[in-house]
């Protein structure tokens, strides 16, 4: 039995963290077993790496070191959690995955995209999502949402120009692979956003054959 792998991406403050549990309820109501994962983190080791990555004490972290820490957390999550769940027919919904590294470390910091793609292949053993949902939000609006709810971390503190590059990166990756990406305008009311997410997921669950590795 093989499951489905759905990832949620977006610039800061896109609302994905509050939308994901509602999406999981929906997928569950369709009769699937659902597993939620969150990056960086989701394993005992990954949660420790997350603390290093988000801490405002670690402003000296270089883009290269930052990249490798994200990849280490992901490698652990893929082997320990995601692959076994998919093998058991579970629908895995991840709050960020490999494309976040391309968007933030690649487009945001300027780490070479081809190098990143090779490292991602190594870290994930080539595991790709079946559907990537991009909750697209204007940068200033998203950052305002995050400051308003007091969840400010080291990565949010990068410049607005950095976050604009991240958003642009996400949008260009989505444009280049429309068969796997679904872009949703997250500047709107959260019920409308959730409805669009459910529609995208329903379509994927119906139309594609279950997940295959490699
Ligand atoms: P979150 O805001 O979704 O909890 O994600 C934590 C931060 O980590 C967010 O600023 C995005 C950033 N991030 C990267 O820079 N690269 C990555 O590969 C991942 C997974 C997240």
How is this structure best summarized?
The protein is α/β, with parallel strands linked by helices and 214 residues long.
Task: Explain what the structure shows.
A 5-stranded parallel sheet has the order 2-3-1-4-5, with helices on both faces. The mean pLDDT is 93. The chain is globular. The protein has 8 helices and 5 strands; from the N terminus they run βαβααβααβααβα. The chain has one domain (4-207): Rossmann fold. The protein has 214 residues and is α/β, with parallel strands linked by helices. The chain has helices at residues 16-29, 44-54, 63-87, 98-108, 113-124, 139-148, 160-176, 190-207; strands at residues 4-9, 34-38, 91-95, 131-136, 181-185. The structure holds thymidine-5'-phosphate (TMP). Thymidine-5'-phosphate is lined by residues 12, 39-40, 70, 95-96, 100-101, 104-105, 155-156.
């Amino acid at each position: 039995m093989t499951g489905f792998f759905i990832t949620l991406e977006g610039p800061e403050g896109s609302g994905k963290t509050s939308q994901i549990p509602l999406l999981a309820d929906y997928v569950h109501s369709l009769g699937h077993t659902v597993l939620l994962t969150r990056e960086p983190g989701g394993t005992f080791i990954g949660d420790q790496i997350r603390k290093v990555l988000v801490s405002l004490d670690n402003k000296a972290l270089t883009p290269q070191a930052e990249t490798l820490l994200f990849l280490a957390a992901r490698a652990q999550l893929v082997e320990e959690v995601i692959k076994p769940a998919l093998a058991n027919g579970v629908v895995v919904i991840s709050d960020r995955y490999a494309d976040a590294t391309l968007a933030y470390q690649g487009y945001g910091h300027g780490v070479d995209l081809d190098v990143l793609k090779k490292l991602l292949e190594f870290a994930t053993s080539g595991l790709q999502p079946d559907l990537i949902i991009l909750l697209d939000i204007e940068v200033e609006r998203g950052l305002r949402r995050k400051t308003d709810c007091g969840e400010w971390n080291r990565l949010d503190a990068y410049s607005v120009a950095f976050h604009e590059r991240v958003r642009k990166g996400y949008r260009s990756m989505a444009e280049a692979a429309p068969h796997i990406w679904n872009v949703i305008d997250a500047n709107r009311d959260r019920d409308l956003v959730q409805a669009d997410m459910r529609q995208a997921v329903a379509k994927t669950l119906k139309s594609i054959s279950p997940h295959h590795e490699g």
